Amino acid sequence: MKAHDGMYIDGAWRPAAGRDTIAVVNPVDEQVIAQVPAGTAEDVDAAVRAARAALPGWAATAPAERAARIAALRDVLVARKDEIAATVTAELGAPLPFSQLVHAGVPVLVAGSYAELAASYAFEEKVGNSTVYAEPVGVVGAITPWNYPLHQIVAKVAPALAAGCTVVLKPAEDTPLTAQLFAEAVDEAGVPAGVFNLVTGLGPVAGQALAEHDGVDLVSFTGSTAVGRRIGATAGAAVKRVALELGGKSANVILPSADLAKAVGVGVANVMGNSGQTCSAWTRMLVHTSRYDEAVALAAEAAAKYGDRIGPLVNAKQHARVRGYIEKGVAEGARLVAGGAEAPREQGYFVSPTVFADVTPEMTIAQEEIFGPVVSLIRYEDEDDALRIANGTVYGLAGAVWAGDDAEAVAFARRMDTGQVDINGGRFNPLAPFGGYKQSGVGRELGSHGLAEYLQTKSLQF
Length: 462
Ligand code: NAP
Ligand code: MG
Fold this sequence. Notes:
Layout: E1 6-9, E2 12-15, E3 21-26, E4 31-37, H1 41-60, H2 63-79, H3 81-92, H4 96-120, E5 124-127, E6 130-136, E7 139-143, H5 149-163, E8 166-170, H6 176-188, E9 196-198, H7 203-212, E10 218-222, H8 225-237, E11 241-245, E12 251-254, H9 260-272, E13 284-288, H10 292-306, H11 316-331, E14 335-338, E15 354-359, H12 364-367, E16 374-380, H13 383-390, E17 399-402, H14 406-413, E18 422-423, E19 441-442, H15 447-452, E20 455-461
Helix pairs in contact: 1-7, 2-4, 2-5, 2-6, 3-4, 3-6, 4-5, 9-10
NADP nicotinamide-adenine-dinucleotide phosphate binds next to helix 7 and helix 8.
């Protein structure tokens, strides 16, 4: 795999300040495929200075021209989609068809949506005797995880550029090659020097330096709740804006009137996609007691069909962590009906598609984010019981409701403490706001709501 040995700062690849590197590992065969520089506070400082210097010019650039650069960026992502998919597959381990469809495909949709929004958004509004301007927040420090390595970058950088902000990105240490490809794409799209900057490195070093930097006006973070909490505290102390997209433990609620086979099939697929490494995955399946046994059989069958078609987990640490959760599930009395903690292959960080039955709402596997291909089937007695279970975690990121008709599902969904719900298998919408209630986060990404995160208002009275 191609790798840059520098940082992308102020429109060029520059040598890193230090000599440390990060080894990039292919999770399928555990081989080192590349080395990238491990950035330090010095690299972060250079990148923030470049972003600050570029801010006035980019903020003053007409929205139509900003839109044209984002459209050009989308076009580069389209032209280089095969290279992007191959890179994500190499460093994340996702099967190539999934990388092509989702990891390379979704960022094109999101970049395209912001090319349109940048051109059409009302950055100026009349309110009575005032004119209200939506102005860029300033320099954005973006910190992203590895599970959707390009999507999570584009979901921050595209709206930030549309708003007129400049950006310093610290991507996940496990997936820096995708981030380097993205920096190449930004360069090719003709985005002016300093508007986007990339510093690869470790979270507690480069990530922390970015979150703490005085020259950053907004920290936008996606990742674990533990790190998000710290970043929120740091930003709060500095009176800095912060956006947090954190974990989830979402419920797939199957009401008695639903098409059970469809709801279970789609539900299992939702968890197994990306090997369960999706923050919004519906990892708890809630089934009425009258149809519970049937649902368990269907889920076990659906998981078995996945066999070894799913990719590995991203790294050895996640591999150990997910297998530990499966052991804990067994120890707490849940019943394994598919998969298990045993590694299905000698090499690579693989975990078998796993289904637990007889899971009770308070078990660890029903409360904590596992981030692996594990789904838990929980029994409920009536709708109020289902709602209590669905809302009974610290998280509130996503969910699904299945019923005989949409109106019945909507009535239930409106009572859920969660940021987005798919009704009877609703499709992904790149314009719908994405983000969490409760400890799943602060703020929203995607669409016009995602753009608004990067804007602040100024009112002039006449
Ligand atoms: P993480 O540590 O929160 O990683 C997210 C990003 O934050 C990475 O770029 C990381 O850098 C960086 N980071 C780490 N410590 C930091 C610090 N002190 N200051 C600033 N930035 C820091 O997540 P993880 O360790 O990769 O995964 C652990 C768990 O988090 C998973 O099992 C899963 O439950 C959850 N997770 C959730 C999401 C989501 O989309 N909600 C995504 C990923 C993980 P490094 O890459 O160097 O660590
Ligand atoms: Mg980490």
